[in-house]
Design brief:
Layout (H helix, E strand, L loop, with lengths): L14 E3 L6 E3 L1 E4 L10 H13 L4 E3 L10 H14 L7 E6 L14 H15 L4 E6 L8 H13 L3 E7 L3 H14 L3 E5 L8 H4 L2 H8 L2 E5 L35 H16 L4 H9 L7 E4 L4 H8 L9 H10 L16
Parallel strand pairs: 3-4, 3-10, 4-5, 5-6, 6-7, 7-8, 8-9, 9-10
Antiparallel strand pairs: 1-2
Amino acid sequence: MSYSPSADRYNVIDYRRCGRSGLQLPALSLGLWNNFGGNDSFEGARELFRAAFDHGITHFDIANNYGPPPGSAEETLRKIINKDFAPYRDEIIIASKAGYPMWDGPYGMFGSKKHLLASLDQSLKRTGLEYFDIFYSHRFDPDTPLEETLGALDLAVRQGKALYVGISSYSPGKTREAAKILRDMGTPCLIHQPSYNMFNRWIETDGLLDALEDEGIGCIAFSPLAQGLLTDKYLNGIPGDSRAAQDKPWLPGEYLSEQAIKNVRALNEIAKRRGQTLAQMAIAWALRDPRVTTALIGATRPEQITENVKALGSAAFTREELAEIDKYATEQSINRWAASSSHQ
């Protein structure tokens, strides 16, 4: 059956300007990190993509190594676009990234021009796209001159293979440095993608949000639900089918300390009083600061997307609510990407 998107899709969600650019992004974006790999159900991935677009989510985030196996999520994206979204290419923003291990040898990862541009060409081939709307340096490379990494991003734009460029998990200092280099090249840095949630607040405490505001760079916060920790999934222990039970690398069981679970339960009670699920409150909280352009969510079922979108219609937080949340929204040492952003 051919796909016809909801005619009401642009009345469902808010759009926010990304930094000091002309681009507006939906307040929620869909990440293709999980459930879009070659080992996942294609029809399931297709339903998630459709559900997102029907709710006005126009921004889809992927990377060269997403799968498993690596690269297969981009191949799934190609099939989805060919089947359903070719007529709507100009209505969607597709972002990809490079920097984490992708192939063997010294050119298979990090931030050299060789890796970034080879990876970009491979990603375009896998997705079947002529260009990406946004292309990222997925992580800072301490051994490659920043001018080389950013020069590759600039060249990608000049070659017509990307419209905008971004960086992910860069420290505040390196973000400011990158912004100046790119600005001098004539290709401004559009967006920064850091991890951010109630239990991982480094972008506040380290000054990244201040740097983004100063430099006119947008922010897309990934992992706003702390890899599922900020949901009702773990309120009564660790379910057998959960990521933590399987010791998946993005949520090892060690993250679920007794104190963390106590904090989750306390936050859940606050969410109940607000008439929200914990996940909805966590998303609304991550978006409370106008410097955060969009929150990057994942989903296993279309219904989760519907529920997450409802977070956008919630009442603003009162000063008292934020003060109470701060008692429990404390650092839980769950930032797996800290090493990538630790270089000053």
